[in-house]
Amino acid sequence: MSMDITFLGTGSAYPSPTRGASALVLRREGECWLFDCGEGTQTQFMKSHLKAGRVTKIFITHLHGDHFFGLPGLLCTLSLQSSPDPNKPPVDIYGPLGLRNFIRRSMELSHSQLLFPYTVHELVPTRDQCPAEEFKEFSCLDGDEVSPQGAQGRILQLDPVENSYLLVEDEQLVLKAFRLFHRIPSFGFVVEEKPRTGKLNVQKLKDLG
Fold it and tell me: Interhelix angle for 99-109 vs 71-80, to 10°?
C-alpha cells in the first residue's frame, strides 16, 4: 500500500499570502483524506497537484476556527464540481461533538444544497481534555434532527480499554483518534498500517539450495 502526505497549510490563527491555515492531505489508492480544513484550504488545493474531488474522508482535530472554518466553503465547491449521483458514497467527516451542528447550520443559513451526501461522525470528549472553565456541553445541540443532506453519523465514545476512538478500519490499515489537552477538547489521529505477510519465492530458494 502506497501513501503520501501533502501539507496544504501549517499556519496558526489565520492564513497568510504565503502560508495556509491548518490542512494536511493523506493520499492512498486514489483517495484523499483531509486532516483539518482551515480557511483557504480549497485555494491551497488548487495550487497543489491534488484534486479536491477525490476527498472521501475529512478529520477535524478541534473546533478552533483556524482548523475548520474552511470546511463549509470546501464542501460547497466540491458540490459545484459534482453531478448528482444517487450511488455516490457519502463523504465521511469526523470531529468533536458540535461539528455536525456547525455544518448543518452553515448549509442551512447560506441556503446551500450539496449535490453529494455526507455523514458526520462526532467524537465525545472527556472533561479532562481542556481547562474546566472552557469545557462546554454540546450533546444537546442536535437532538433527533437529521439534515436532508447529511445522514446521521455515529456518536463515538472513548474506548476505556484502548484509551482511543476507533474511526476507520479496513484490510490494510486502522485509523484511531486519541485525546489531546488544549484550550478546548482536541484530538490527534493515528494511521497505522496492518502487518502484511511476506512473499516467499519458493522456486528461488530451491535454486539457491
Answer: 60
Name the phi and psi angles at 92, rounded to 5. -90, 125
Active-site residue, 92 included: no
Catalytic residue (one of 4, 36, 66, 159):
66
Tens digit of each residue's pLDDT, the chain (209 residues): 789 999 999 998 888 888 899 999 999 988 999 999 999 999 999 999 999 999 999 999 999 999 999 999 999 999 998 888 888 899 999 999 999 999 999 999 999 999 999 999 999 999 999 999 999 887 766 655 555 555 679 999 999 999 999 999 999 999 999 999 999 999 999 999 998 877 777 778 778 86
* Predicted TM-score of the model (pTM): 0.89
